Amino acid sequence: MATAPRPRTTTRDPEELARRLTAWLDARLPGAKISGLRVPQSNGMSSETLLFDIDHPEPPVRACALRLAADPAAYTIFPVYDLRGQYETMRDVARHTDLPVPRVLWLEEDPGPLGAPFFVMERVEGRVPPDVMPYTYEGNWLHAATDAERATLEAATVSLLARLHDQYPAPAVEGSALRRHVTAAREHYAWVVDGLPRSPLIESGFDRLEEHWPADEGPPVLNWGDARIGNVIYDGFTPAAVLDWEMAAPAPREVDLGWTVYLHRFFQDLTAGSGQRGLPDFLRRDAVERRYAGLTGHTPRDTDFYTLYAALRHAVVMLRVAYRQVHFGEVRVPENPDLMILHHAELAAMVQGTYW
Predict the structure, then answer these.
(1) How far apart are CA 293 and CA 162, in angstroms?
(2) For the chain: N or C, fewer Cβ within 10 A?
(3) CA angle 188, 192, 193 (to 5 degrees)
(4) 229-254: pLDDT as tens digits
(5) Catalytic member of 207, 226, 256, 269
(6) pLDDT for res 1
(7) How confident is the model at residue 42 (pLDDT cuts 50, 70, 90)?
(8) Annotated catalytic, 226?
């Protein structure tokens, strides 16, 4: 993609992490050692992931993944990292649903051992649609798949949302769950621009949400939060593990659906803008909504609102990523800060009601 250089994601020393992790594990499994510790090339820019194996006669599992709260020195994407919340959400989703959630093993809230809280979970093998370069570009397994194989993956992925929303016990929320969710998004934006140039485009997006607020939000369900195929490990074209629960929260069903649809559109728009065809028939909004309705009996509504909301939340993240690059001296702030939002043109069209 024709973007700024990929920003750095950590300031931590992998060798030092390996030494400290070995000491921490030995206190829980005497005589245990770790081997093959590595940081995935696709490591995210929020919490970090380490992969390793446990060498022990009777390990709870042998292949592990560790989620480590973001290093504050790396100019974090979110202001707070609730590792306990993620750990408990994964544990509870596994208890209450049939979703393939990796087994969680240990939660460490003391930042002393590794410099930040972390939890350890079972590592599931498989393949993930890439973000860089996005799976909508040529040269990866999902793009090379047949239409029928992608349709299988799409159907199975929408089924994850349907089952989560239907099987997980309805969360108890006072007042409007959607209002709480949008308020949190506004607070995230305020944190991102604190002391920095504000984004007129993002602020106009929040104004449009208020103007088109759903008349009937419906009862809240547990939302996965970062509901996209890049957070699923697939065995062939079937989900083998559902990852990244740090954005899970009570909200209307359409919050998850809008995020799933829009995050694909984000990659598709980038691909089309570069002159490639991409995957225009994959994860289409009408098809996702139709399948979800067939699985749950709930017909998604106010979908323009929810896809705009997804694009707006993603814009806040993209703006923070851009300001992180500014922080590390990789780019400069342009005269119009909206230009730092990679999908600013598409977001502007959504705000104006001309995108779909």
Answers:
(1) 9
(2) C
(3) 120
(4) 999 999 999 999 999 999 999 999 99
(5) 226
(6) 34
(7) low
(8) yes
